[in-house]
Design a protein that fits this description.
This protein folds into two domains: 66 residues, no CATH class; 150 residues, Zincin-like, CATH 3.30.2010. It starts with a strand and ends with a helix. The protein has a four-stranded mixed sheet with strand order 1-2-4-3, covered by helices on one side. It has a four-stranded mixed sheet with strand order 5-6-8-7, with helices on one face. Strands 9-11-10 form a three-stranded mixed sheet, with helices on one face. Helix 3 packs across helix 4, helix 4 packs across helix 5 and helix 4 packs across helix 6. It is 35% helix and 28% strand. It contains six helices and eleven strands. The chain is an alpha/beta fold and 236 residues long.
């Protein structure tokens, strides 16, 4: 198998891809989670035919890369010390830790105040994660309920909503109508949360990331690219 790096020109974009040849009979295109594009062609395939096939899939490739762009960026591990900044709904808050008889979290004048029975990073992280999930459960359901109003004509019904920590995605959905959202989204601006929820609801109308899916998303949430970018910037 010989690998070479080539490019597809699509509008103003240049898409690099890895090209390899094997004994397979048909050409295959794969977009990896890191955005890498791999094209596997039959041995002896004509480069012109490969290029034309790749260009015909350029729109799909870009949309797949955009989808994988939703994958959670790596963030430095929090140390849970006084003065450390933490995000909530797109705003930075300085952490203030107080030892007390009961566990409690509140936001006051730019501070995220954690009162805890035990002062150690693991314990504080668990308290904060539980608080995030509680806040997310209420807010995400409210946003979902409001967002469903613009989906009435599609008769999709209210999906089952699950909220949990996810390593690689902001959200996902199943063909059975279950939507899973990353608890970390509670740290993002509200508009970004709306974008992810509407994105997943669009999947209940068009399950795959095809042209119809993006046409619907553009129609129902035309500012989605702006909020996607804010999401990536906020939680980078």
């Amino acid at each position: 198998m010989l690998n070479t790096i080539n490019h597809i020109n699509y509008g103003s974009k240049s898409i690099p891809y890895n090209l390899s040849f094997t004994t397979r009979k048909t050409l295959g295109i794969k977009v990896m989670p890191d955005g890498t594009v791999n094209i596997i062609a039959p041995i002896g395939a004509n480069m012109l035919d490969i290029t034309q096939k790749a260009k015909s899939k350029a729109y799909w490739i870009l949309k797949q890369r955009a989808f994988f762009g939703m994958y959670k960026p790596n963030t430095p591990k929090r140390k849970f010390v006084n003065g450390e900044t933490h995000l909530y709904l797109g705003r930075q808050y300085k952490l203030q830790i107080i030892k007390g008889d009961a566990d409690e979290i509140k936001i006051y004048r730019g501070a995220l105040i954690i009162t805890a029975k035990f002062i150690n990073p693991d314990y504080l992280e668990k308290i904060l994660n539980d608080w995030h999930k509680t806040k997310a459960t209420v807010l995400f359901d409210e946003i979902l309920t409001i967002a469903l109003e613009v989906f009435k004509k599609y008769k999709i019904g209210k999906p089952i909503l699950h909220i949990r920590q996810m390593e690689k995605r902001w959200g996902s959905c199943t063909k059975l109508g279950k939507i899973i959202l990353n608890t970390e989204l509670i740290k993002a601006p509200k508009g970004s949360i709306e974008y992810v929820i509407i994105h997943e609801l669009c999947h209940l109308v068009h399950y795959n990331h095809n042209k119809d899916f993006y046409t619907l998303q553009n129609k129902l949430y035309p500012q989605w690219e702006k909020w996607k970018e804010k999401l990536e910037q906020a939680l980078a």
